[in-house]
Write a structure and sequence with these properties.
The chain has 131 residues and is of the alpha/beta class. The protein has five helices and four strands. Helix 1 runs parallel beside helix 4. The longest helix is centred in the C-terminal third of the chain and has 17 residues. The chain is globular and about 35 Å long.
């Protein structure tokens, strides 16, 4: 089961999120892989980042492997999209895939790993015809 919970007032294309998660599950041949995606405010994300990572700031995405849960800050996505001169939906999709990669064990705590995750995410999006 794939669940999308938008707790913000932003208009989110939940069907597209579900389609991308389904493509990810198929691409990586994952079995019994349920995923919950929550779109939250900066305040909620800041509080969660402080609670779970000890970082007193907001972030774009948090992934909880044991729960298969991805939390995305819509406000942070908007800022990043503007900074990167990308569309908001495009940045949201990229960050969603980044969160999914964390759920299957990918790490980005070192620069080389972060760059590898970016490349892997882009490869998935291209092979599935999403970008």
């Amino acid at each position: 089961m794939i669940e999308v919970n938008n707790t913000t007032k932003a208009k989110i294309n939940s069907k597209k999120i579900i389609k991308i998660v389904e493509a990810f599950i198929k691409f990586y041949k994952l079995k019994n892989f349920d995923v919950s995606v929550a779109i939250v405010s900066d305040k909620v994300m800041h509080d969660m980042n402080l609670t779970y990572r000890g970082l007193d700031k907001t972030t774009d995405v948090l992934s909880f492997c044991g729960l298969n849960e991805i939390i995305i800050s819509h406000e942070q996505i908007k800022r990043q999209a503007k900074e990167l001169k990308k569309g908001i939906e495009s940045e949201l999709i990229f960050i969603l895939v980044h969160g999914l990669l964390h759920l299957i064990g990918r790490e980005d705590n070192k620069e080389v790993l972060r760059l590898a995750m970016i490349a892997e995410g882009e490869k998935f999006l291209k092979k599935c015809g999403i970008i």
